[in-house]
Amino acid sequence: MAARRAATGASGWARAFGVLARNRLALVGVGLVSLFVFTAGLAPWLSPYEPDRITITVAMQPPSLDHWMGTDHLGRDILSRVIHGARIAFVVSVGAVLLGATIGIPLGFLSGYARGWVDHAVMRLMDALLAFPGRLLAIALVAAMGGGLLSLWIAISVSSLPKYARIARAAMLEQRERDYVYAGQVVGESHTVLVSRYIFPNTVAPLTVALTIDFASAILIASSLSFLGLGFPPPTPDWGADLSSAMDGMEFMPWAAIFPGMALSLTILGFNLLGDGMRDVFDPRHYDQ
Amino acid sequence: MLNYAASRLLQVIPVMVIVTLIVFLLMSLVPGDPVLVLAGFGPEDRQGISQEQYDALVNRLGLDQPIHVRYFQWLGNIFRGDWGISLTSQRPVLTELLSRYPATIYLAASAMLVTLFMAIPLSILAARFQNKIPDYSAMSFAVLGLSIPNFWLGLILILVFSLHLGWLPSIGYADPFDQPLEFLRHIILPAVVLGAASAAQLTRYLRSGMLEQLGEDYIRMAYAKGLPELLIMFKYAFRNSLIAAITVIGLEIGQLLGGSTIVEVLFGWPGVAKMLLDGIYSRDFPLIQGAVLVLAATYVLVNLLVDLLYRWIDPRVRFS
Hints:
The structure holds 2 protein chains of 2 kinds.
Chain A: H1 2-7, H2 13-21, H3 24-41, H4 43-46, H5 78-114, H6 116-130, H7 136-145, H8 149-176, H9 179-186, H10 191-227, H11 239-246, H12 255-282
Helix pairs in contact in A: 2-12, 3-5, 3-12, 5-6, 5-8, 5-10, 5-12, 6-8, 7-8, 8-10, 9-10, 10-11, 10-12, 11-12
Chain B: H1 2-29, H2 34-39, H3 51-61, H4 67-80, H5 93-128, H6 133-147, H7 150-164, H8 180-214, H9 217-224, H10 229-266, H11 272-281, H12 285-313, H13 315-318
Helix pairs in contact in B: 1-12, 5-6, 5-8, 5-10, 6-8, 7-8, 7-10, 8-10, 10-11, 10-12, 11-12
C-alpha cells in the first residue's frame, strides 16, 4: 500500500513500473499482452501450416498431435489461423487506437485549453458521437464505407474519439490552472510550447491508462464487425470471422468455435488486467478497490 | 427540478440534430454513384439505364439539390413520418421498423433484468466480504464478463444448453402475449448473453460504491446502534450506492442496444438491430438510416429519462 502511494509521487515511471510488477493480476495481463504481441509479430514463423491452405482430406479433425487445435470444415489448421488472427487483430487495434488518439487527444487539449465556444462546440460534437450506442456507430460507418482495413480503422477510432477527447480535456483543465503553467506564461512561452512541453508530459499517465484499456475495446469491436461479416473478406484468418463460420458446424466440430474465441477472450482479458493495474498505479481513487 | 428537466430537454435538441446529421451524412460515405446506391442499383446497372431515366432518378431522389437543402428535406420527411421506402421489401421503412421495435425493447429490457439480478447480489457479497473468496469470485466474474465477447459467450451457451442438453432453443422468437412460455424459453439465452457484460461492469461499479458507503460514519453509527446487518447492507449502504449507479445503468442501456446487433443476429431475434444487419447485407440504405436513427434516438431518450430519474430519486439533488 505504501509502495503504491509512493508510485504516484514525483518519482515517476520507474517506481510506477515497480508497483505494477508487484500486482499479480497486472502481471498476468502483461504476460497475455506480451504473448499476443509476440504471436502477432512472429506469426509466419510460429504457424505450423499456411492459414488458408485447404486440405479437404483432413477436414473437421478434432485436436491431435498434427493439428493441436483441430481443423475446420475446409481442413484448414485452426492453430495456424489463430496465430495469424493475432496479427490481424494487432494491426487493426494498433491502427484504430493510434488514429483515435491522434485525433481525440489534440481535440480534447484544444477544448480544455481554449475553453469558451471552442470547448462548447467540440464537446457537443463528442456528446453526439456518444449518443450512438456502443458498437452501433462503428457498424453504421463500416456499412457505409464497406469492409477493409481503412474502414475498420476509421469506424473503430471514431467510436473511441469522444473518450480520448474527454479524458484529454479533463487532464488539460486540471493542469492549466497550475502554477508551473502560469510561470511558463510569465516567461513568455507560446501556447504551443506551453501545451506540448509543459502540460502534455503531465497528462501522459491518464492517457496511457485510457489507451491500454482502449486496445481491449478496439479488438472487441473489430472482432464483432468481422463476426457480422463486415470486416475482412474470406479467407483472411480473423478471429471474429472464423467464429462466425464455425457457427454452422458447431455441433460436429466445437473446437472450431472454442479456440479462436479463447484466443480473443484471453487477449482482451490481458489488456483489461493490464489497464486495471495501470489505473491502480496512477489513480489513487482506485486503491483497495 | 422542473428547471433542470427543462434545461436537460433543451440539451437533447442539439445532440439529436447532430445525430440526424451524422445519420444523413452516412450516405455520403457510401462508395460509388449515390444515385444508383439510393435507387437500389449496383454499379454494373449503370449501363442499362438511359440518361433520361438517370436524370429522372436524380430528380426523384432530390440529388440535384444542394446537400443542406436535402438534409432539411430529409429531416422534414422524418418528422412527417415519411422515412422512405425499403429497397428490399418495398414497404415504408417506418412501418418495418415499428413492427420490429417491440422485439428489440423486450430483449434490451430482459437483458437489463439479467444485469440487475446478477450485479446486485454479487456486488453486495463482494463488498461485504472484501478481499475474501466471495469478493475474488465476484471480481473474477466481472473481469471475465468484460473480456469474453458476447458472440463467443453466445456460441458456448448455444453449444451447451441447446445442442448438448437441449434445454433451450438456439434460435427464433415467440410473441410474449400469444405464447408467454415459449417467449420465455426463447429469450433466456439472448438476454443472458446480452446482459453478461453489463452485469460485469455494474458489479464493479456497485461494489466500489458499496465499499465507499460502508466506510461512512452513518454506517458505523448504524452498527453501533446494533441494527441488523441485513438492514444496514440493503436499506442503507446498497440504496445509497444504487443512486450513483443509476447513471451507469443508463450508459449500460446503450451497450445493450449496441450489443443487440450481434445477439439478434446470433439468435435470429427479429428486432431492429437484426433488420439493420439485413439492410447492410442487401445494401438497403433507407432501412439502414432508419434503423440507426431509431436505435440512437432510443438511447438518447433513455439517457434523458435516467438523468431525470437520478435527479428525482436523490433527495440531496431534488431539494437543492
